[in-house]
Amino acid sequence: MDNKPAINLQEALDRLLDKLEKEDITISQAREVAILLRKKITESQIGSNKINDE
Amino acid sequence: MTNNSISEVAQPEQTSIRERVKNWVTSLKLRNSGGQSMAVLDQLITPPVDLLPIPDVAQLRPAIEKTPGFADETVTEPPIQPPSPDTEYRSNLMAESYEIIDLTDNLQILDRVSSGTSVDSFWGRRKNTGETLYLKTETDQNKLKTEFLANSIYRLMGINVPHVDLVQYQGKLWTASTEIPNCKLCNMGKLSTDWETIAQGFVTDAYLGNLDVFGLISNANVAQNDHGYWRLDLGGCLDYRGRHGEKTFSANAVPEVDSMRDNQYTPGKVYELMPDSAIRLQVAVLTKTVTDDVIHKLVARSGIFKPDEAVRTLIGRREYLKQRFLNPTVGTEEKGEGEQQLDQLSSMKCFPQKTNELIQSYLDLYHQIQTQVEAFHTRLLDNSTHIQELLRSVQGAPVLDKYGYPSYYTSDSMELGEFSIELSDLYQAINTNHVPQELDCDEVIDCSSQVKTIYNQCAQILSSPHKFLVQPNVNKTLLRRRIEQENIRVNDEYMAHVTGYEPLLGIINNGHLMSKSRQIQVNGQFRATVTSKADQEMHQVVFDRRSIRPDYSAPEGVSKVPPVIFVSKSSIILENYQGLDSDGWHAFGKLHNAATSTVDDFDANLAQKSFAVLVPEEYRDRLYQDLQGDYANRIAIDERLRELNIVFIAKTLYRRLSGTLYSDGDMQQNQQLVRAIYDQARRVLPKHNHVRGRLMPNGNTGHGSATYNQPLNSFVLAN
């Protein structure tokens, strides 16, 4: 699981964590986005632009 | 509009949770930049449970239901009996003349309670009767007399208080209270539990402004024995505070009837659920018991300072309660005149045109959101069986992670997750579109309640704890109370318009304060003192609210001269077409309407005494000299000045000792000056009718702007 992930996921998480840090979103909302990201990953779309779109 | 979502109910330990969240996010960021994105994703999906303080709706429910007006269709009102007046006390009171007895040689000191510079008190025993008394004296003797007066009114109303008398002891005036046998002090918890009994005295408490009725939370001023509850310390009644100093005490309204039900303050913690219906019954008793002749008698026997003012205040306050709560329709479903007017004022009808358009844009936005929420709701209903299955599947999932969350790796939970994201977006959309509180009105409350109700139904289907607290009746009640408070303030405060000496002569001759345009019509000309202002603001007169311009810009060449100050009740603004601009409140005539291009000039007849005209003392000689040609003699001039409510004011009120005029800054710094000037005016101004209206803060609207308020004189209540 800790294999080097696609860079787009890292960027998406970076943005998500930034928002969480600034309290623009709540943990529940971050969790919901994370669930979606996870869904995209399980659909074997790691590294595709679709993740970035989220 | 108040933000009433449940999710925003204050959480315990909010700061520490916030700190923990911050630390957690920082650690996640570090791990993410260290290449452990998948682990971070897992952490985000299953955050530590203690960082997610989801409020428990079931726990909150009792607190919500305690809110006044909550679901008032189903809540039955508490049975609060009105007090039974003490008729025997009343007949004795009216028959006897009051005599202050001297106890110097007839008192044995039992226990000294306090001995200070301002207050001195002790327990003593009357030698001849053996009666135990509590004696108290203060430097401010008027406070003792006020307490004595308040005590008499409580006794008349049949509300338990110790019998208080004014006595002389060792050359000083004291209040002597009888001992209440076998009583123990009550704490706030006790009072809140048995509030329906205490509330028998609510109207009397509010009428007398007894904000200190329950004292401090740890030190209640109420005691209990077999005969019920006793109000012990009435030192904070009328214009006195419980502890020290004076408080604002309105002479023509009883704002305490609302503020003492506001649970932000100590009395509200007991009285917050006091319904208007019970107040009505008590006001009926008050108006029958505390009649004009009783008030005259009580004030005279108390010997308080300024007895005329006290009589006027007690009558004015009683009339306010009568007007607001008593009407021919008591006991029926119909609302009284006063309440109907408040209803009108809390609707969009009372807004100026531009504000109305602004509110309409908010309403349109709510309708848009409503369409989206309704569409979402329909989709949820269409898929309700499937959603129930998904919820069951997630809840019944055997795989729980170590934090107790269901595993989110199933396709069911992901599908649910998408629904909840959509729900969350709608929540945000509703939550971020607030209408500013001052623009709140019934239409906004109804509209937002509708949207929130449908949203809550969606949240219910998805088992989301994030719901809105929908309580339109509570919000409407609070809105009416806010408007009522504003009315009371406006009726009690003053506004000022200043002019110079030259215009004053013209005003004395024709007896009117008029806009420039009207002056041109009447006098054939308008003499502008400052040429640059000559062609502006032709139809209005500008007033300062709660302040005074300390000087007047004289004709070109001389910068500032002492002002002639026209003072009127702020309700003059409500009675006319009005608007707030950068330089003050602009009053036009009643019929003025920028929207329909109807021009109506401000014109007030000074002989109707709605103004006090304060003229600087240093103009006095010059004024008599200039007027002598127009009047037969000095007596005739005096008569004219009296007719127009013209009084001379001390030089010190607008000039410093150095001789220079005060500046705006000085006036703002030193509110005493403003108060002194208004006090001067108050002495000459007659009691003004109570007026209802809403002052809308339009901001800097610019001259002739259509955002000026419609005249609110249709809401004027003539006493």
3D structure, described in words:
By secondary structure, chain A is an all-alpha fold. Chain A has one domain (7-53). Chain A is 67% helix and 0% strand. Chain A has helices at residues 7-21, 27-42, 49-53. The longest helix of chain A has 16 residues, at 27-42. The radius of gyration of chain A is 11 Å and the shape is flat. By secondary structure, chain B is an alpha+beta fold. Chain B folds into four domains: 1-66, no CATH class; 87-323, Phosphorylase Kinase, domain 1, CATH 3.30.200.20; 335-399 and 408-464, no CATH class; 494-714, no CATH class. Chain B has 26 helices and 20 strands. In chain B, the strands form five sheets. A seven-stranded mixed β-sheet of chain B has the order 16-17-12-10-15-19-20. Chain B has a six-stranded mixed β-sheet with strand order 1-5-6-4-3-2, with helices on one face. Chain B is globular, with a radius of gyration of 32 Å. The model of chain B is unreliable at 1-13, 53-76, 328-332, 397-409, 699-707 and 713-719 (pLDDT under 50). Chains A and B meet through helix 1 and helix 2 of A and helix 1, helix 2 and helix 17 of B.
Topology:
The complex is a heterodimer of chains A (54) and B (719).
Chain A: H1 7-21, H2 27-42, H3 49-53
Helix pairs in contact in A: 1-2
Chain B: H1 14-33, H2 37-45, H3 57-66, H4 87-95, E1 101-102, E2 107-115, E3 119-126, E4 132-138, H5 141-156, E5 164-169, E6 172-178, E7 184-185, H6 188-193, H7 195-198, H8 202-207, E8 222-225, E9 228-231, H9 256-259, H10 266-271, H11 276-289, H12 292-302, H13 307-325, H14 337-345, H15 353-382, H16 384-395, H17 411-432, H18 442-461, H19 472-492, E10 494-499, H20 501-510, E11 512-514, H21 516-523, E12 541-545, E13 552-553, E14 560-561, E15 564-569, H22 571-574, E16 578-581, E17 584-587, E18 603-605, E19 612-616, H23 620-627, H24 634-643, E20 646-649, H25 664-669, H26 671-684
Parallel strand pairs in B: 1-5, 19-20
Antiparallel strand pairs in B: 2-3, 3-4, 4-6, 5-6, 7-8, 8-9, 10-12, 10-15, 11-18, 12-17, 13-14, 15-19, 16-17
